[in-house]
Please model this.
Amino acid sequence: MFEIQKVSKQYNGEFALNNISLTMGKGMNFIVGASGSGKTTLLKIISGMDQDFDGEVTYCGKNIKELTTSEKSYFYNNIFGFVWQDFNLLEDLSVLENVLLPQYLKNKQNQKNANNILKELKIFDLAQRKVNSLSGGQKQRVAIARELMKNPKVIIADEPTSALDEKNSETTMDILKSISKNRTVIVVTHDVNLIDSDSNIIDLDEGKFVASPQKNVTKIEKLTYGESHRLTIKNAFSMTKSNVKSKFGRFLVSVLSLMIAGVLLLTTVSGTIASSGQGDIEKLLSTYGDALKDISIVSSFTSAVGTDDNQEEKPNADVSQDIGGLYDQYVGDERVDFTAFLQAFDNIKVTVDGKEYPIEGTGTVPSINKLIAGKMPTGKDNEVVVPDSFVKSMGISNEQAIGKEIDFSSAIYNWDTGDPVIKNASITAKIVGVADNTTYMELEGNVEEFTIGDSFFFSKTGLDDLRGQAGIENEAMDFLIRAKTPTDMIAIKDELNEKGIAPLGQFELVEDIVRLNDQTTEQSGSASMFIGILAVVMVMAISLITGFMRKREFAIYKVSGFNNVHFSLLNLTEKITEIMTAILLMLVTSPLINIATKGLFSASILNSKMLISGVQFIALVGVAAYLTTAIAFIMTKTSTALKTGDR
Ligand SMILES: Nc1ncnc2c1ncn2[C@@H]1O[C@H](COP(=O)(O)OP(=O)(O)OP(=O)(O)O)[C@@H](O)[C@H]1O
Model:
């Protein structure tokens, strides 16, 4: 039983209801009156949809104004049923799925009861039909059936016959009358022909009674809270299944947006785009070998092409520079792979285990492409790295060569006086490494390959001994620095230039690419960050748009008794289904995605390790989608999402 005491409601200072007091109980209660007289306003107030009014409304002693959100959803699932002018059914679901909607919150789905109600309302044959294929009269009976599934104590009907023809209006009114025998049925209508004389009639005009309600209410009813009101995981998944089936397009959009955002995030975080510019450097390294990253530091050279800083000088001008102390500065530098002295040896003779091995082509500045076994000579003893061609001539493997002692003798040029003086020197040294001495040089537009087979690299101790024997005193030893990366190479070169040293190296080949790469890495770094943000924003925008499109659906859930907790679970099962499908789709389409990213960024991103990150990213954007949808549900107001009143 409703008790309405001194209820007033104003909109912009105008009274929609003005100090109304009445009671409504079991049986038919009609609220009638001209358009704008306050009928719908009264309905919203007694149903709890509008809790902002003056005065008091109680149902069986419970203050409607003070109902909490969760109490209200309990009322909407168990005590109040709603019948609307435009039915408010989920049009893409079947009749049975609609009728079972409030039942998802009960412990068990009472299919038998649903069948009975459908039979009573003569729509049993339509159970599997989609609602959008039904006539208006049939839809209204489905809507009433859904509300009867709540076994409600009150039915609140807002213009239930407005959209129906005369025959269907009479049928609907007959149904409402028959169910009012043991319920409170409140009907707002302008169709006075449908009202019979023994009903309670509340006639309004400009927010006041035209006449006081005629009939007074019978006995006081008791409010009981017996029914369970929770959504089980099983029910959430069966609702999800119905929703996916009925709105497959919407589901697909969500799945695709999750998958695309996951892959975009992957490209961002994996730096695929940022690293795509590395390809040019790789190409150069494969053409010119690792020596491309070498910086030679020599005390004198004949200036010609070869250093970009000296190109403007006269060709063939002699350059002398003080490189003393520089070697020690770069030995432990973290940008340096290794350093090696560039001593040329003439007329080399090498004896190992009493056998002499001839070395051809002596007198060239040594060169190293790669260390292929052992290490560079860094120790305090007499150590040496030998050419692999020499090891081959011994007929042993590179590994077997390591640790062997060689007797090395050679002629060394002494330039101390300014003129070359040949001196002999010899040493016994231990082999610590074997090098590939291939060098690549551009000759007339072609890159030619040479092997410098007399490239012996001694430790500082060993070389000091040899040079001492040759009487060299003044000249600092020439050396090379192998930079770790082309970027390191250019940084060291710039640093040496600042010190007034002109190093030698393939700087023209590397510099432009390195500088361009740095620039594009910086740019693509911000571009990929932008893409990452865009991906998340895209998913959130799609969820928000979908959420708003689902406003009516959310409102129908709410008036069926779903609260935020129930929806959170439904949202969770929906998102889990979307995320799992998106992950599956990504795995299935990963070969295609790889082809696309290879074309765009010259890198394939979905290798097995990356796929795991892809799965995590999809889950992550799924969480963003979950939160956005949750916000859309929470923000849905039933009284605005579901149209009320006469239209
Ligand atoms: N949200 C609102 N904002 C401002 N004014 C409103 C609002 N809702 C209703 N009103 C006003 O309050 C008065 C009562 O409206 P209400 O919808 O309750 O009338 P009604 O009797 O249901 O009319 P109808 O039969 O046309 O649906 C009207 O003057 C209406 O313009």
